[in-house]
Amino acid sequence: MTKKALRVAAGLLFIAIITVSLDVIPVNPTTAAFAYLIAILLIAAQWGLVESVTSSGAAAFCLNYFFLPPVRTLNIADAHNWVALSAFLVTSLVASQLSELARRRNAQLHQRQTEMERLYALSRGIMLIDSERPAGVQIATEIVRIYDVTSATIYDQTDDQIYAAGIAREMAPLDALRELSVRGNLVLDPATNTCMAPITLAGRSIGAVSVVGRIGGGLVSESALHAITNLIAVGLEKARTQELVSRAEAARQSEQFKSTLLDAVAHEFKTPLTSIKAATSTILTSSALTAEQQHELLTIIDQESERLTGLVTEAIHLARVESGRLHLSRSLRDVRELVQEALKQSSALVSGRPIQTQFAPSLPKVSVDAELFVVMVKQLLDNAMKYSPTGSPIRITAENSTDSVHIRIHNQGLGLTEGERTMVFERFYRTPGARQNAPGTGMGLAIVQDIVRAHGGYIDVESQPGVGTEFSIRLPLAKGERN
Questions:
Q1: Were 415 and a residue from 395, 400, 408, 465 both cysteine, which residue would form a disulfide, CB within 3.0 to 4.6 Å?
Q2: Global pTM value
Q3: How far is CA 67 from CA 21, 55, 62, 72, 79, in A?
């Protein structure tokens, strides 16, 4: 038995119950008619026109048989009762029709309200999509979540790709969506619970969407489907615009970075190149140089060449970081050995400067890129040498916690103000005093920070004017090395 037939039977049962109740309590025909009319209005409001019309016929029969004299017969003795019965039947039918119209209108209003709420939720979800993930997948996921459908498939004509969410076997094939985007017609198939529509923007087709599943007990309305496709079009276009803006910004920053890098390196190259040029010119043009003088000039050439090599290395490392080509070649290494290697490679730089090292006795190995770790320590040593008084010691300590190794490099320099401390890791940033007193490009600490981050670590700086500066690095331990 269908649902409608069950409702008709329930309506007839309701009329029968009212008839029995009214028959037990003696009432006049007018009271009975009003009781039946109220029952018919309730049935029409709750179920619909067919059920209320059927109940109206049953109520008219019962009113005639049980309440209009002579009772218990279908005869009507008084002509006025014929008029009353006819009026009752017409009133009940008209009331049923009006109640049905009101019920339908209320259902339509509820459906529109629900559609508006869902469209608002979808628009909000589209506006908040993550630019790091494909927009089509996120929009399809939002449609499945908000409309509680089986699947949603979006075809983007621009890159000829489909993006889907939901049950895989219900997703529309690529060829069908391609064809739909070309034809531009709307498809509503109640048999398969499928809604398909082209996605248009400014009058041109940019794709198609397929939604499988019943929304609120039925297929989504055409107006709602058009609104959904418009939101999808806006979302896809927004994602494309964001991507173009990001590319343009990346290109602009890349050009700015290259320009700044070239300016900084070119400026720093002038001093060692000038010294090298002066020393070589003196050697080549002067024939009266003693062996000691020649050795001094060659030493200058060697030192300045080493400085040039360091500048080129800095630029190469920073360019690798900036281009995203900083790939780690990790291995378990001893921190003591890596720090000693960095000191060895910086021997010319730290010559005559006391270096104090202190390592925890149970210091575990760390999973790092050994070459980049040495570069990191060398950069911090170079920074300490530049910004601390000649002859003052530099202290390097390493200790471990339950999940990390902490490396600290302390110098007794003038220290940093709070504003300088927050800016010290910025590319090409140099403190006002450093620009006048120490050579450099402002790249070293930026390189250190990027190396630490690439290892999943963290770097911080503690400094006070007149006290000194300490850089603290935390590198996570490999799981097998944790306590």
A1: 465
A2: 0.43
A3: 12, 17, 8, 8, 15
